[in-house]
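Subject: sequence -> structure tokens, single chain

Hey, anyone have a minute? Need the predicted structure for the following. Not urgent.
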Amino acid sequence: MTVGYAGMISFTADYCIAVFISSIGVLQFTFSLGGLRGLLFFKSTFVARTLGLATAILGFALFFGTGTRNINDYEGGLDAPDQALFFSLSALTALATTLIVSSLVNRRMRGKGFDADAGLDALRDGNYASALRRSILYWRSNWRTQTKRYFSG
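Reply:
Had a minute. Here:
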């Protein structure tokens, strides 16, 4: 069975969509386990875990349940470097989408206080956009004092 160029594009698009959907599900599931409420699409951690797990399974089921997927790379499938590239791009797109959507959904979550060294803990009580904005403002106003010890003799 030989798949043409158009078939390869369809296979690649299907793969990217499946990875994107599954990655969003995995991210929601793990963020709920980690207590990072600012990155969740739903306020309930139970709903986030349940839908995250279901979405991860859905992406897998959509990809393998909608056609023949056991295709060699010389017959229209993906070879290993292409698969790694498209997986990485799809997973990064899922992360970016999660950061944007969760910031919009949780726009009222501002966080309790600001600690410059909070890291991911800032996302327990605040959304990504507000944490990023506060961090950029902090580092923009304090960059000289933070980098002085590295550049003074």
